Task: structure prediction
Amino acid sequence: MKRQLGTALLSGTALLLATMLPAAAQQGARISNDVVRIGVITDLSGAFSDQSGRGSIAAAQMAVEDFGGTVLGKPVEVLTADHQNKVDVGSAIVREWIDAQNVDLIQDVANSGLALVVADIVRDKNRVAIFNGPSVTRLTGDKCTPNTIHYAYDAYALAKGTGAQTIKQGGDTWYFLTVDFAFGHGLEENTAKIVQENGGKVLGAVRFPLNNLDFASYVTQAQASGAKIVGLATTGMDARNAIKAASEFGLTQSGQQLAGLLLFDTDVHALGLEATQGMYLTTAFYWDRDDETRAFSRRFHERVKIMPNMGQAGVYSSTLAYLKAIEAAGTDEAGPVMEKLKSMRINDVFVKDGWVREDGRFMREMYLMQVKKPSESKYPWDYYTLRATIPAEEAFRPLSQSDCPLVKK
Result:
């Protein structure tokens, strides 16, 4: 009888300890200012607002809600701001967020120039930034930091996917329509190099000013080149205007094909399949890939009336991963959280078996898509046919070519 009583007491003690451990762990957790704050800085009013903007904000909010709204017993808040595509405006907001409002994570940053500045800010102030909007590869190159992750895509992956894979599809001669500033130059140079490395030829290029409205002369030059693929080294409204002009001048009807080097579902939706049919593009996410992506995307659509693109789905995924890292680290301090993020394998609606490389590059497979003909689309937002799946190690710049100071040579 005494032995049974002793066993019961031990079992009761073990149960009590088991129920106390989570509470004790939370009491030992370190959350600065008793709240985790995530600042989504994005384009709400300019050329990139469709591809980021309110969709990126909704994605972050959905992630917080799906996580439960708290982490380690503390609330999670989402702050939002419009950087207006001005580096000085955006950097001032980020500094104020960190200094006055104790923001822990800077999210999205849909502007490459601003992203390079934010990388320095979070390094100096020991916070975390996860970039889903910008494409500039310097974020995992000479501007890499221990505090930053480049998550959804980058210019190298877009160039590698579209350049190399379209050659395999027969598109072995290229001509570029390039927006005349660093972003466009980088897209053209990366893609041209990959085209040539894979046995293709670049027949020429023409450059146009940012926010250009008249593409007639540029499209006729591309037609005259005879190139099988006309690469659009631009994005946003410039890409849309170029595609409209190409359709109006019969470029694709004459047998040439357009390749969007940074094109989103929202661009195809805005232009329609008649204008975009046959185009090639590379993406990290397609809403209609499987039952899981469809379920998530329909929830997203209920909020913002568009289907999520790769940047917005990346915001959702990386926000979830960040909160899981805080939970695992027992703190929102940047160093331990980044250590956890770099040790995790991430599996969610955006990615299967993704991981963060030592240079801060998030590694995941990419997809070459071709835009459907109007007759092939069966329902709203049914826009793409998968042409190739590109493994992560093939899609992104190899570490052997990296100039990131964090990479061990």
The longest helix spans residues 2-27. The CA atoms of residues 106 and 234 lie 25 Å apart.
